[in-house]
Design goal:
Layout lengths: L1 H10 L4 E8 L8 E7 L1 H24 L6 H20 L3 H19 L6 H32 L4 H10 L5 H17 L7 H4 L6 H9 L4 H8 L1 H4 L3 H22 L5 H21 L3 H20 L4 H6 L11 H21 L8 H21 L5 H33 L8 H21 L2 H4 L2 H12 L6 H15 L8 H19 L4
Antiparallel strand pairs: 1-2
């Protein structure tokens, strides 16, 4: 109802906050407003969440048909979706914090819907470690903001920081706490293990997590963007964490054999991508990314059962590994298409560093499409890839222009300071994206089989960074979930099995 009220008020021309009431907080100089923000950001996020939750609910009717606990599932789904709607329409950081905490507890019940599955219980416990820590960060930021400006309203925070000569130390600390919240809520490397392992829950729960709730970090960053741009070191750190996450997760994703695990690592990579865009000051682009990826991920999870049938329909012949020369040609063509399109829409990447970042992101994306086209010998397929690359690049730029026009006023008028750290982040982004594209393209034919096997093994296991979290979790919850020791990873088990078979063949005198 709050989402519908906000949408209706927006279309009727109302802008600002819709205040329902105020709850006094004893001992504090600020109260807790019960308010809804009525702006374009609320409009698109509330509509998005409503659509995704409705789609998941309709899918769940048939998915859980006959399950004895179907009624309990829909109650928990309604609570989780309702609390998350309150997250996206909240007009102040206090209500946002309460809503996201309530969403986390309700979602935890959904993740443990099948209580007889030990892995599901353990994954939910691991998620709780990071979610509760992020909630504490958010509570700390809420207290600091309220005590400094005397209000928890997002608009009051924006007005204060935009008119202040310098940001007070408490608000600087609050900005860092918000960045910490984004890193933990968005499952950035090396805290991504829980997001990968919550796949024992029903598929609708996975869709709800990966297409909705996991974006709470990006949403609070967008809501407080006016503060973050005034603390550029915190924003730069967020971009650096996002860059590391997108590079590592993109490589790990290519080694996964389970469909849902591959989708989970894909979500991790995209969340890192959003944080990188936030760190570069591309707030409208991050919002566009959030909306597009949410819709894609909901469809991907809800249709994951038919992926194997789709793979069987792909023709196995005709593909080849592109050469370094053809890959370089595709990269240059992608950058040229991106720069030309940006120039058509009034962007000058040589004068505006943010325009340069936009051209880089769109150019690499277009280049990946062109590289895929070069893997086919058929000239028609190559021309089709070129046409798709140009169309995708222009579509992306058109949507970005529309989002800049429609939502910049709801984010912040200030820009990220263009200093040495910003150029370092931009340079690392360029090198990282080009390196990632090369490894996924001609690098496969250059690296030796031994190096590829070593990389595959380590990447398959997520570089083992989740081991310490696993041990910490088992120390507290092993008896409750009936697990005594973590299971060995499948990649190591496979390699050991191959080695044993070779030894048996060698000792028996058989041919290898």
């Amino acid at each position: 109802m709050a989402a519908l009220a906000a949408d209706l008020s927006y279309f009727l021309g109302s802008r600002g906050d819709f205040d329902i009431g105020h709850l006094p907080l004893p001992g504090l100089i600020f109260d807790l407003p019960i308010s809804v923000t009525v702006d374009g950001l609320t409009l698109i996020l509330a509509s998005l969440v409503s659509f995704v939750v409705l789609t998941i609910a309709q899918y769940s009717v048939e998915y859980l048909d006959g399950d004895p606990h179907q009624a309990r599932f829909f109650r928990l789904l309604a609570f989780t979706g309702g609390f998350f709607l309150l997250v996206v329409v909240s007009g102040n950081i206090g209500l946002f914090t309460i809503a996201i905490i309530a969403t986390g507890f309700s979602l935890n019940k959904l993740l443990k819907f099948y209580g007889e599955r030990p892995k599901a219980i353990m994954a939910a416990h691991k998620k709780s470690l990071f979610s509760r820590t992020a909630d504490l960060f958010l509570l700390g930021a809420t207290g600091l903001i309220g005590s400094q400006i005397g209000s928890l309203q997002f608009r009051a925070l924006r007005q204060f920081v935009e008119h202040a000569d310098r940001v007070p130390l408490p608000l600087q600390i609050a900005a860092w706490l918000i960045v910490g919240t984004v890193v933990l809520k968005s499952a950035h490397f090396p805290f991504q293990g829980w997001l990968i392992q919550v796949m024992e829950a029903p598929t609708p729960v996975s869709a709800l997590m990966h297409a909705g709730v996991v974006y709470s970090g990006a949403i609070i960053a967008l809501r407080t963007s006016a503060l973050l741009v005034r603390v550029p070191d915190a924003l730069w750190f967020l971009g650096l964490m996002g860059l590391a996450t997108v590079l590592i997760a993109s490589l790990v994703m290519t080694t996964q054999t389970a469909i849902k695990s591959m989708l989970a690592w894909s979500t991790t990579a995209q969340l890192g991508f959003m944080s990188l865009e936030l760190g570069l000051g591309l707030f409208p682009l991050a919002l566009l990314h959030l909306v597009g990826h949410s819709l894609y991920k909901a469809h991907a999870f809800l249709s994951s059962g038919s992926v194997t049938d789709q793979l069987r329909q792909v023709s196995p012949g005709g593909k080849k590994i592109p050469s370094t020369a053809s890959w370089l040609l595709a990269v240059l063509a992608g950058m040229a298409i991106s720069a030309g399109g940006a120039w058509m829409f009034g962007e000058d990447p040589f004068r505006d560093p943010k325009g340069m970042a936009l051209v880089l992101i769109v150019g690499v994306a277009v280049a990946q499409i062109l590289v895929k086209g070069l893997q086919f010998d058929n000239l028609a397929d190559g021309l089709m890839a070129l046409l798709l690359g140009v169309s995708a690049g222009l579509t992306y730029l058109v949507l970005h222009t529309l989002f800049v026009w429609g939502f910049t006023a709801d984010l912040t008028q200030a820009t990220v300071p263009v200093n040495a750290p910003y150029f370092w982040l931009l340079g690392l982004t360029m090198l990282g994206f080009l390196g990632l594209s090369w490894i996924q393209g001609p690098g496969r034919g250059v690296l030796s089989q031994r190096v590829q096997l070593v990389l595959f093994t380590h990447l398959y296991n997520g570089l083992y960074v989740d081991v310490w979290v696993e041990r910490f979790s088992h120390r507290f919850w092993s008896e409750r979930v009936g697990v005594s020791l973590p299971r060995k990873n499948l990649a190591v088990e496979s390699l050991q099995s191959v080695a044993r078979n070779r030894n048996v063949i060698s000792q028996s005198g058989g041919s290898q």
